[in-house]
Specification:
Structural class of chain B: alpha/beta
Low-confidence stretches of chain B: none
Mean pLDDT of chain B: 89
Radius of gyration of chain B: 18 Å
Strand content of chain B: 15-25%
Helix content of chain A: 55-70%
Number of helices of chain B: 9
Oligomer: heterodimer
Number of strands of chain A: 3
Helix content of chain B: 25-40%
Strand order of the largest sheet of chain B: 6-7-8-3-9-10
Low-confidence stretches of chain A: 268-276, 278-293, 556-563
Largest sheet of chain A: 3 strands, antiparallel
Strand order of the largest sheet of chain A: 1-2-3
Distance between the termini of chain A: 36 Å
Number of helices of chain A: 26
Shape of chain A: globular
Distance between the termini of chain B: 44 Å
Largest sheet of chain B: 6 strands, mixed
Mean pLDDT of chain A: 76
Amino acid sequence: MSLRSPAFEKRLRHRVRAEIRCSRERRKAWRKARLRRRLAAGPVLWFLLVAWCAGMLSALDAGAFTSEIRLAIVALWFLGETAMHLRRLQSEIYGPQALLLLYHLPLADDAILDVQRRRWRWRSVWTLGWYLPFAFALGPIEEWTIASGLVSLGLFLLQGMCARALALHLEAWAPRPVLAYVPALHLGTVGAFALAFSLPPLGGTLGPVAQALTWLPVFGWLNHVYCYAWLGGDPWTWTLLLPVSVVFWTLPWSWRRIQSRFQLPEPLFAATAAEAGWEPDCVEEGVPDQPAGARGVTAIEERIRTRSFLDGESWWTSAGWYERLAVRCLDSRERLLVEVLLGAPPSWTADFWKRLRLAALGGLLILALGQYGGWVFAVALLIGAPVALPLTGGMWPGLQAHSMGGIAAPPFALLPVGFQELTRVLMKLSGLRLVLGFPALALLAASIAWKLEADPRQAAAILMKIAALLGACLPCFAVFQVSAVSNDTQRIRWRTLPLLLLIILTVVGGAAALFFAGTVVRSLLWMAVVAAASLTLRWVYGRAWARGRFDLVSASTPGDGSS
Amino acid sequence: MRIELQSVCKSYGRAPALDRVSAEIGPGQVVAVLGANGAGKSTLLRCLAGLVGVDRGLILFDDEPFRRDRLDLRRRLLFLPDFPLAYAHHSVIRHLGMLLRVYEAEADGVEQRAVGLLREFDLLPLAERPMGSLSRGQFYKASLIALMTLDPELWLLDEPFASGMDPHGIHAFRDEAAAAARRGRTILYTTQILDVAERFADRVIVLHEGEMRAFETLTTLREQARGTAGPLEHIFRELRAEAVARNDA
């Protein structure tokens, strides 16, 4: 079943446009209301990532094992894709957001599932376009010709379709507990994929492992067909296409199994108190002569009259050492802002230990790998350190935009909260994270130094520079967090643009200069420059905020409720 | 609170939402903002709340220019959108407490007022339930109770009469709002229901495609529309006829 009727939509669109053309006023109104289509950043970034990976793949040189390692990397890529499509399929079928509309239509469960499957299939097919750069990835295996490029592209398209088919099979047949590990499989394959690019020097030792990887389900078999049947002329390898075709032929069975297990989840308002995760109204003991409802109400009234709901301190009392430390850095107003921004008591202590363990594991892994690998690792670490460690902000539900009748605005925008106090809280907590994350950062810096064959003094210098850079950029990070939920980029003034560009260039240039500065004095000087530019950005942004130069909404389209 | 709008202009991209809107609203007035869909009603309220910035013009509160960094002025108003925001896992009480603390309005007796309002709006038994488990009308009532407990000088309400509240809730809201106006609070609300606006407003702002077409007391409007069904209906019929004539041109 399809919820779309292209023929009807076409007819209606034709009639509407004819009506609009009849009147100059209507044409004017139509032009005003027309939304400009913008290329979304996500697909573009994905395409660039695929192009980069394809480039790396084609440039790979691992001696005798080049072909095996290249094909192993391709197999890893598609294993990651399988996990990604499986997650998408799960969210498409069971995601409450997508089901919200369908709940309210007179549709049977089967029809809803069919609609969801169509959506997933359409999106999956659309994303096959990402493989275009792969047309060049396997060029070096044979000659750089259009024909070889087309064959390479066809091979990747076939593997991509296999990944999607396999995702559907897994959803149908894999036990539920196993499916719970799909995100981990996704992350694991992505990590292994990144790691694989530093394997070539290990070709001699890991060659057999790479060879084994090429036999990864379906994708590997197709690679073997390509390498040994298409290029090598081995007729027996063509038989591998038989199990591949089985993957596609058996899709209807898997789909029927998904259909038989599909059940619409109950909406929240129908859930019991225990399922919804809230405590039912308390019934006061010892007042047996009152009706049940009245007893609960009396208890609630009493609790409100104690004014305990106005006491924010209880929020922090059961917290860990990290939270207690944070409380000491914040005054009462700032603590309140943290409550507003978080919505729930923080779990910073637990998060800190978890991330520290991860960072330590990563550092140890790099140390264990020793001198092998290339510059990719060092760059990945330099980028990954501030992202992986909670140094630059963390999750703030109060800073995320929520739908509010046609627009999306963050909760703080409706409250009397100032930009200066908001960014001050973000800066203070990020600064605290930076200080507390220093040991993890030290371990990472030592790993990088080991990797780059540097001495400990250089490692210490790198560590200090990363910390200084992050510290100097704290105002920038705070501004970016607030900026993410505003439409400032759409309402930027041309006369402000040169100033903003100058500040951003100073921050980026100063950061680069700080990193490559030879002496302590120069490093301090560049740090001061970055800090000054970063603070200037906060000041300029604060002025624009105060004067209402932009809206505190991340989407606003006239005519869709934002009147 | 005295509100003054001086040639306020606001646009979303190329589409103007407010075009040179000027008005003066005194304290203790209940003002209904009317207009067709997309006329600029919600935008006007959002401008007054500081949620969106004005492109040109000035907004004055008690003769002081309103800026987003004037927290003292922002604490004197509260904007309740048609779909209010609250953390879904917060109970009604917690939501209320957080709002009172952010507004620094935790004076003695506020809890008594909260209990009274919860009782009046039939929300007392649900006061410890998470906001996310409430129905749309109950959710709006909870947000409205927070506003009324806070009792700011300027109430900005987007479509309170189309918020899913039950008849008793709507009646209670009107009573409370009328009492607040008598205490000197200024109330601006948007609505599409002309009957409500005719019965529950001192003045009416009519917006049409961002322009202010009327800002009059109901008495004046009634005089202008003598002999027709209703003063507001008369205005809207004229605006509609004007739009149709222009489209057919």
